[in-house]
Amino acid sequence: MPAPVLFSIVESPGHPNLSDLYRRLGIREERLPSQRKAMQALKGCKPDFVVAEFFYGFGNNYAGANVSNLDTFLASLQKYAPQARTIVLVDKAQRPYVDRLAERFPLHAVLVQPVRPTDLEPLLGP
């Protein structure tokens, strides 16, 4: 049986490096530097998990149609890998806005930063 695949979408220095945890659990991590790269990767690889940071769209870029930086990627995820479990990392100040995203897309879990390996490990089981 192949190892589970996890997309780790690292868009800021605040994203924790959890590579050791993933390795220890036998999960193959694909580190991606942007939502755009993650959407490209979806076409060739269907992840079992996605770990990504949430950034609310305070500016005009996300006004109206999108809530955050994750909307477009999560729409693509539903098409290419609907079974993937999405774990969202969020700053405490932006936590209330994640609920709006969860109304549109299924989220496996929401973790408030800072996130430690012990916070994430139970979410990566079968």
Which structural category do the helix and sheet elements fall into? alpha/beta
CATH superfamily: Response regulator
Give a quick account of the main beta sheet: strands, pairing sense, barrel closure: 5 strands, parallel
Question: What global shape is seen?
Answer: globular
CATH topology: Rossmann fold
Order of helices and strands: EHEHEHEHEH
Percent of residues in beta strands?
15-25%
Could you characterize the architecture of this molecule?
There is one protein chain. With 126 residues, the protein is of the alpha/beta class. It has one domain (5-124): Rossmann fold, CATH 3.40.50.2300. The chain contains 5 helices and 5 strands. A 5-stranded parallel beta sheet has the order 2-1-3-4-5. Helix 4 (95-104) links the parallel strand 4 (85-90) and strand 5 (109-112). Helix 2 (35-42) packs parallel to helix 3 (71-80). The longest helix is centred in the middle third of the chain and has 10 residues, at 71-80. The two termini are 13 Å apart. The mean pLDDT is 92.
Entry keywords:
126 residues, 5-stranded parallel sheet, 20% strand
Secondary structure elements and their pairing?
Blueprint: E1 5-9, H1 19-24, E2 28-32, H2 35-42, E3 49-53, H3 71-80, E4 85-90, H4 95-104, E5 109-112, H5 117-120
Parallel strand pairs: 1-2, 1-3, 3-4, 4-5
Give the gist of this structure.
The chain is an alpha/beta fold and 126 residues long. It has 5 helices and 5 strands; from the N terminus they run E-H-E-H-E-H-E-H-E-H. It has helices spanning 19-24, 35-42, 71-80, 95-104, 117-120, and strands at 5-9, 28-32, 49-53, 85-90, 109-112.
